[in-house]
């Protein structure tokens, strides 16, 4: 239990009013999460703390039942109900005795707000949260793919190291041949109650440090913690069409859970190397195709390459200008729905830099025969009129 939660104004953390709707809470949280996410602010401790505060606040307020309990608890504290203040008297007497309200002197007041304060992000509520199954941690890895691998999709092996059960003691923390026993202080719950002015707060047990178990003869490898570093190889399937910089989530491929809890997730950041011929533009691929002067003037059927090594025939009409782009449908990047983008082929007219006598004579004859006049005449005239 985080005993200081009741002193936190979660509405202020999210920047909303106490009457905010669920949609307003969600909108505000998402805005803060995007702004202060650790991935967007690497090494920024302040941003990391703000992200954790917003996540903590949203965890409590997004659940109607938890939000109601939190509001009630805040009202009690604000009115001095737990400190014998102005609102904490009964019948004009002294301090208000909450044991009368909740079942007598032996009542455990830690249960009143236990559902709120023992709830962590993605966790479970209840006094025995320490003994409950725990989800494994999320892991992150990076890979670099060739351009074609990113287009087609690929399965890659990833070597991961993460916190896991000690391989020597299988997570018990005890030396081989021995077993841990139940903690006599907390009776296996991992928590003890501490009285704070008439209100009990749950805290990690000081004897077993929250494990609920006592190890008399600790494992020499993990020193009784039951934890160690595990290395394993996972096969990560990268979908076709992944972009450079994409962050892919592989569910259940993260660190193993504890006490039967589910595995965490693996996030893979993908880097894609450049291709010497093709470039990517959204879901389309672009390629520049050289074109001779004669082909541009007379028209031609030319071959354009695909990323798989095959070719497609493209019809170039007569009089094609340099830089004109042609679209070949369905030869681009694979989308999530299985359809494909297009291949955009831009022609680059190659002007000969060296001519023999015959070629030069032919071009002169062509220029005389075509008699197109001065193509810059209108341009020059427009400038002179200014």
- Series of secondary-structure elements, N-terminal to C-terminal: HHHHHHEHEEEEEEEEEEHEEEEHH
The count of strands amounts to 15
DSSP summary: helix tally: 10
Distance between the termini: 80 Å
Characterise the protein shown here.
It contains ten helices and 15 strands. The protein is α+β, with helices and mostly antiparallel strands. It folds into three domains: 5-123, DnaJ domain (Helix Hairpins, Orthogonal Bundle); 136-171 and 223-274, HSP40/DNAj peptide-binding domain (Sandwich); 279-377, Sandwich (HSP40/DNAj peptide-binding domain), CATH 2.60.260.20. The strands form six sheets. Strands 10-11-15-14 form a four-stranded mixed β-sheet. Strands 1-9-8 form a three-stranded mixed β-sheet. Strands 2-7 form a two-stranded antiparallel ribbon. It is elongated. The relative contact order is 0.10.
Task: Sum this structure up briefly.
The chain has 386 residues and is α+β, with helices and mostly antiparallel strands. Helix 2 packs antiparallel against helix 3.
């Amino acid at each position: 239990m985080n005993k200081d939660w009741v002193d936190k104004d979660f509405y202020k953390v999210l920047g909303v009013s106490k009457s905010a709707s669920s949609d307003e809470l969600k909108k505000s949280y998402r805005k803060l999460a995007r702004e202060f996410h650790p991935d967007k602010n690497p090494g920024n401790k302040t941003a990391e703390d703000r992200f954790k505060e917003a996540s903590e606040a949203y965890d409590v307020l997004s659940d109607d039942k938890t939000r109601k309990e939190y509001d009630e608890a805040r009202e009690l504290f604000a009115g001095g109900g737990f400190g014998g203040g102005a609102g904490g008297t009964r019948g004009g007497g002294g301090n208000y005795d909450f044991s009368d309200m909740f079942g007598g002197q032996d009542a455990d007041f830690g249960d009143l707000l236990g559902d709120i304060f023992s709830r962590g992000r993605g966790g479970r509520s209840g006094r025995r949260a320490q003994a409950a199954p725990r989800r494994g941690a999320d892991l992150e890895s990076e890979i670099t793919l060739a351009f074609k691998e990113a287009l087609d999709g690929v399965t890659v092996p990833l070597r991961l190291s993460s916190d896991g059960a000690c391989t020597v003691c299988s997570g018990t923390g005890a030396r081989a041949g021995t077993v841990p026993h139940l903690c006599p202080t907390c009776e296996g719950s991992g928590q003890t109650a501490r009285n704070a002015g008439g209100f009990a707060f749950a805290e990690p047990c000081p004897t077993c440090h929250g494990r609920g178990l006592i190890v008399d003869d600790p494992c020499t490898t993990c020193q009784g913690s039951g934890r160690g570093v595990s290395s394993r190889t996972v096969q990560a399937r990268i979908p076709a069409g992944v972009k450079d910089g994409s962050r892919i989530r592989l569910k259940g491929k993260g660190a193993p859970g504890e006490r039967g809890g589910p595995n965490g997730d693996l996030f893979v950041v993908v880097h894609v190397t450049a291709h010497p011929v093709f470039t990517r533009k959204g879901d389309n691929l672009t390629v520049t195709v050289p074109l001779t002067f004669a082909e541009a003037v007379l028209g031609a059927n030319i071959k354009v390459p695909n990323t798989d090594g095959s070719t497609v025939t493209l019809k170039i009409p007569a009089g094609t200008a340099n830089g004109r782009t042609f679209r070949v449908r369905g030869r681009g990047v694979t989308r999530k729905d299985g359809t494909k983008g297009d291949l955009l082929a831009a022609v680059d007219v190659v002007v000969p830099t060296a001519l023999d006598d015959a070629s030069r004579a032919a071009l002169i004859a062509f220029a005389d025969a075509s008699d197109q006049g001065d193509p810059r005449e209108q341009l020059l005239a427009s400038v002179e009129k200014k």
